[in-house]
Write a structure and sequence with these properties.
Layout (H helix, E strand, L loop, with lengths): L3 E2 L2 H6 L3 H12 L10 E4 L5 E8 L3 E9 L11 E9 L5 E6 H20 L11 E4 L3 H14 L3 E5 L3 H13 L3 E4 L3 H4 L5 E4 L17 E4 L12 H10 L1 E4 L9 H5 L8 E2 H6 L17 E4 L4 H13 L2
Parallel strand pairs: 1-6, 7-8, 7-10, 8-9, 10-11, 11-14, 12-13, 12-14
Antiparallel strand pairs: 2-3, 3-4, 4-5, 5-6
Helix pairs in contact: 2-3, 2-10, 3-4, 3-10
Length: about 325
């Protein structure tokens, strides 16, 4: 009857990206899932405390994490905390997962699932090259997820920190990938069919147009005041491509799109794509003129619930 306490390494080992993406898809099809709005408590000094509960017919969780943007200058993690997992039938606490590890891996797995459903593929064996903008925790997780789940072999890494970019390139090479540092993301953006932006999102970083058939996963800006992509680029993507958000929570959290004046509440969600609802009216994503796909991810406790389901299934 003891509670399993998972270290960061144990949490990561229990959440392989491909399996986690499958669990996220299964969760979106599960009618028993309930996810109330998350509570974001501002803290003195500019940080925030996030309280995020979720439950289905078997498992209930509460994610409790702090987000301290200034920690990057202190050499400390910007996200810290835990996810507590309960058995719904007995109410017993059955596990405690490492919060930052779950956050990194489930966010990357959501982007992976979106790419599997929405990215234009030139062939089954060639997903194209990936550009990662931001070489922190999320940049690393997305590199691993797209390599494991899509088979990406070529990656460029752009970061305001040359040392961080080089470290991520070396990690990619250790996985057998071909990788290089990119000094100016905007200069090469149009040449990459896959793009992940995972910057601190304190100011606009990306001002150029992506590849005409690109799949973009924008994950850095997850509050209405954060931003990575310029308003003109977002407006261009809205006119020429397909915009999808992770959940309806993005209606009031998708900083890039909200600051561009885009009506986020009219956009399809990943659940609409998975369930093929009437709200999902895509162009043919395999046609030559389908335009870019911009997937805006803001986070949701349901993704953490999917991670808990994945971990509990491995026990």
């Amino acid at each position: 009857m003891r509670t399993e306490i998972f270290t960061p390494a144990q949490t990561a080992a229990a959440l392989p990206y491909a399996r986690l993406a499958l669990e996220i898809e299964a969760l979106l099809k599960d009618p028993t899932v309930q996810v109330p709005p998350r509570l974001v408590q501002p803290m003195h000094g500019g940080g925030s405390l996030f309280v995020m509960p979720a439950a289905d017919s078997r498992v209930a969780i509460t994610k409790l994490i702090s987000f301290i943007p200034s920690n990057s200058s202190r050499g400390l993690p910007t996200i810290q905390g835990d996810i507590v997992v309960f058995d719904v039938q007995t109410g017993r606490r059955v596990g405690v997962l490492d919060g930052p590890t779950v956050t990194a891996r489930r966010t990357a797995a959501v982007s992976l699932l979106a790419a599997q459903k929405l990215a234009h593929r030139r062939s089954a064996s060639d997903p194209g090259a990936l550009l990662i903008v931001g070489a922190g925790v999320q940049g690393r997780a997305h590199l691993e997820a797209f390599h494991a789940g899509l088979g990406v072999q070529d990656v460029g890494v752009a970061s305001r920190s040359p040392a961080s970019a080089q470290a991520l390139v070396q990690h990619a090479q250790s996985l057998g990938m071909r990788a290089q540092v990119v000094t100016d993301a905007n200069a090469v953006l149009a040449h990459y069919p896959l793009v992940v932006s995972a910057t601190p999102a304190q100011s606009v970083v990306l001002t150029a147009q992506p590849h005409p058939q690109a799949f973009v996963a924008a994950v850095g800006a997850f509050t209405p005041h954060m931003v990575e992509w310029s308003a003109p680029v977002c407006q261009h993507l809205a006119r020429t491509g397909t915009l999808v958000v992770d959940t309806r929570d993005a209606d009031h959290e998708a900083g890039d799109l909200l600051q561009a004046g885009i009506a986020v509440n009219t956009l399809a969600t990943l659940a609409d794509v998975i369930l093929q609802t009437a709200h999902w009216r895509p162009r043919s994503l395999q046609s030559a003129d389908c335009g870019p796909v911009y997937f805006k991810s803001c986070g949701w406790a349901g993704w953490d619930l999917a991670a808990a389901r994945c971990v509990m299934a491995s026990l």
